[in-house]
Amino acid sequence: MSAPYVLRIAILCLASFFLVNAALGLLARILSPAAIRRAARMNVRAAEQMLFALRLLPPAAAAFAVLALCLPSYLWLEPTRRVESIGLGCSVIALLGLANWIWSAVRAIRALRWLDPAAALEPMNMPEISLGGRTLRVIDTQSPVLALAGFVRPRIILSSGVARSLSVEQLELALRHEDAHRRSGDNWKRLLLLAPDVIPFSRTFRKIEAAWAVFAEWAADDEAADNDPGRSVALAETLLRVARLGTPARLSPLFAPFVSGDENLAARVERLLRAQPAAPLPPAQPRARNFCLGACAALAVAALALLPAALPLVHEALERLIR
Amino acid sequence: MDFIGARTDERITDPAKSSRKLTALGTLECQVMDAVWTGGEGTVRDVSRILGRPLAYTTVMTTLERLFKKGLLQRRISGRAFLYSARFSREEWERQRAGEFIASFLAGPEPARDLLVSCFLEAAGRHDEKLLEDLENKVRLKRRDLLRKSKP
Question: Which residue of B125, B135, B146 is in closest CB contact with A240?
């Protein structure tokens, strides 16, 4: 198949992304059981972050490979001949890459269209209220709705049924739980988890994503309880009180309800009841973040230094791929 | 000696083709299906062995024959005996039965349909009552424990 320059670049970018993402994705899939076992022994917030990084590593590394290596090498070293043929294999891989992106976009659009349950229930809405420095939107329904909604300006959606059934202390704990989700940017993370999978229409990272969701809830529980056994028990009570109200209205997959399935509920309650008073953990988070930033900076410097030597090699590989 | 004198065309007859709809099974039929799913392909004797209860050879043979005619089993001749195996996996069978059950309700009069839908909604809308009770008991015990510890 003959193709002009721009189409060749597009096909090569899609094919390269697909190949790198597939290779690293399969590696992540193989490593996932060990990673989940390791996560179970870690601080829950660190575990959540590690699983999130493992899930996003393949598409992020593939995007880096395309933007930092494939694209520059092709633009720099490929003569802008008008037409060149493209092999069938490369076309098929590029099509798979395109299908992967389309599938990811469809999932994201579906989730985003479903984003605001408050908007969907607008006629029954009460106005936004401010409580303890938080913006709450109360929906007048008995259905147990309690979730953090939105990305740029996240707000807590609360149904009047939940508000009426909880005591002030329980409501405060539930809101602290949602605050923890907001601070950790969990809604953004849920959106990023819709990044392309290894193969279109597959769920290769299902286990990692499910484990991430569990650890994200546990981390939010821990931050709401703040190492206080009394608060942990009160939060467990709150979970059960909300569960007693029935199954929550179906929300966008971009935010989790305060209470979800029975299995998860039981695990969370049991965990909260086992909580022991403990001294606050040393602030390991900034250290880990600094380490990651340092590693990224070192990688960027190394990539820049090696780029002149690497680009011809990458170009040669791309030429093989295209034929 | 299994099925001596059985008609040759039975070897290739597929009764399920003429009757796809799965019918309700009796207790022994269910047990025999379980045995076939557990043991895989086998003769009447193999199935009797897996059933593990003193049943007459002819009883098992008749039951297998009936299940074959209902389209749940397939068979092939091996030497002088038939080897029976399941036409569906246990999961496929259960899914198909559930589908037929729901379809029969939906084909029924309006109240039957409403009843089914409301039952589903009720079941889906409830957390496991027993689980919630257990967890609430644990919370109560823990609270009591904490209170006891906090008292000097």
Answer: B135
> Residue A280: inside a domain, yes or no?
no
B47, B39 in Cβ contact below 8 A? Answer: yes
Q: Which residues of A touch B129 (CB under 8 A)?
A: none
Q: Name the residue ranges covered by the structural domains of chain B.
A: 8-88, 108-150
Range of the domain at A126: 117-273
Residues A251 and A312 in one domain: no
The alpha-carbon gap from A220 to the nearest alpha carbon of chain B, in Å, equals: 19
CA distance B139 to chain A (A): 6
CB-closest option in B125, B138, B143 to A247:
B125
- From the CA of B130, how many Å to the nearest CA of chain A? 11
| Mutate: best of A143, A273, A274, partner B, most B CBs <10 A | A273
Task: Return the bridge partners of B74, or none.
Answer: B85
CATH 2.60.120.10, applies to B8-88: no
- How many residues are listed for chain A in this entry? 323
What is residue A200's three-state secondary structure?
coil
CA distances from A89 to A12, A96, A317 (A): 11, 11, 14
Position A278 in a domain? no
Question: Measured between CB atoms, which of B127, B139, B143 is closest to A262?
Answer: B127
How many contiguous H segments (helices) and E segments (strands) does chain B have?
A: 7, 2
A279 assigned to some structural domain: no
Any domain includes A306: yes
A244: nearest Cα among A113, A97, A142:
A142
The whole-angstrom separation of Cα A214 and Cα A223 is 14
Same domain, A68 and A181: no
CA distance B64 to chain A (A): 40
Contact state of A240 with B136 under an 8 Å Cβ cutoff: yes
Alpha helices by DSSP H, B3-109: 15-18, 27-39, 44-51, 57-69, 90-106
User: Are A130 and A106 found together in one domain?
Assistant: no
pLDDT tens per residue across all 323 residues of chain A: 556 778 888 888 999 999 999 999 999 999 989 998 888 888 888 989 999 999 999 999 999 888 888 888 888 777 766 667 778 888 888 899 899 899 889 888 877 766 554 444 443 445 667 776 777 888 777 778 888 887 777 888 888 888 889 998 899 999 999 999 988 889 889 989 988 888 888 888 888 988 898 899 999 999 998 888 889 999 999 999 988 887 666 666 677 678 776 667 888 898 898 876 554 444 455 566 677 777 778 877 777 667 777 777 777 787 777 77
Name the residue in chain A with its Cα closest to that of B128.
Answer: A262
* Check: complex ipTM more than 0.85: no
Structural domain count of chain A: 2
* Shortest CA distance from B126: residue in chain A: A246
